[in-house]
Amino acid sequence: MATELESTRPSERSAVVRLQHQAIGEFVSSLYGDEESSDLVLAVPPCSRFFVHKLVMSQSPVFRSMLYGSNWKESGAQTITVNEDDKYVSDIEIFLMYMYGLPVNLTWRSIESLFYFGDKYVVDSLPEKCLGYLIDNAKKNSSLRYALDAWMMARRVLNHHHHHLRSLERVIFCNIDLLMKSEDMVGSIDQDDLEYLLTCDSLVCRTEFTVYKIVETWIMLQEESRRLDYLRKFYRLVRLPHMHIPELSYVEKLPMRLFPDESCERHNQCNTTVKMLLCDAYRYHLFSQEERNNINMTVAPPREIGRAHV
Length: 310
Hints:
Blueprint: H1 10-30, E1 40-44, E2 48-52, H2 54-57, H3 61-68, E3 79-81, H4 92-99, H5 108-120, H6 125-140, H7 144-157, H8 166-173, H9 176-180, H10 183-188, H11 191-199, E4 204-205, H12 208-220, H13 224-234, H14 245-252, H15 254-258, H16 265-286, H17 289-293, E5 304-305
Parallel strand pairs: 1-3, 4-5
Antiparallel strand pairs: 1-2
C-alpha cells in the first residue's frame, strides 16, 4: 500500500519534503549549546569548552574521521581537544554556529576566521558562502580594491592554492589594467601574490607592457637595498620580447629610475642586468614573423592578451 506521501502529486510532495527539511534544520539549530542532549565536549585551549553533537560535527570529514575512525585516538572519546591558530581561536563559536545551521554575521574579521575553519575541517560550503559575500560586495561597491584585498586575504588563509579562489581571481585578473593605475593597490601586493599573479595563465591584459608597469611600480615601492634582487627575480617573468620597441626603450632607462645616482654600484649592476634581459628581446624583433613562431619562448609562461573588463 502506498504511503500518504507517495500518493500525493509531485509538486505537493516537494512542498512536504521542503517543510520536513525545514523542520529538521530548525530542530538541529535548537540543539546548539544544549548540554543535556550533547554527546561530545569540544575542548578548545586555552579555556573554551563547547557541548556539541557528534552527528552535527560529522558533517566535516575531519571530525567524522576523528570521531569514528579506528586510527584516531579521539575515536569514541567523550571529549576531544582541538588546537587552533591563536588568530582565529576566539571565533570558533561562529564556525560551530554555522555547523548547526544558525545565521552568522559575515564581517571582514569573521570571514577570515570562517575561511580558516572551513578549509581546516573541509566544510566546502563555508568558503563558498564567504567568497559569495566578498564578490557580491565587490560588485555592489564597484571596488577593485576590495576585491584585491579579499583575494589576498583568501589566498593567505586558504593555503594559497584553493579551488575556491578562482571566482575572486577572475575579478582581479580581468581588471589588471585598472589595478596597474593605482600605486596604492600595487604596493599592497606581497611578494608571493605578485609571483603568483605573474605566472598565472589566466591573467588578462591589454599588452605585456601592462604587466611590466605593475612589476616596475611594485619594485619602485620597495626599499632601495632590495630593488636589485627583486628586479632579477621578477623581470624574468615578464615577456619582454612581446613588447614594442618604444616600450623596450623605456625599459632601458629603468636603472636611472631605480637608482638615480649613476655612480653607485647598484646602478651599474642594474644597468648590466637590464641590458642582459633586453638582449633577447631586441634580437627577437629582428626575426621574421615565421621565424618568431618557431622560437621557443621560455622567458615567461604564456599569458592571455585581451581587453580588460571594467
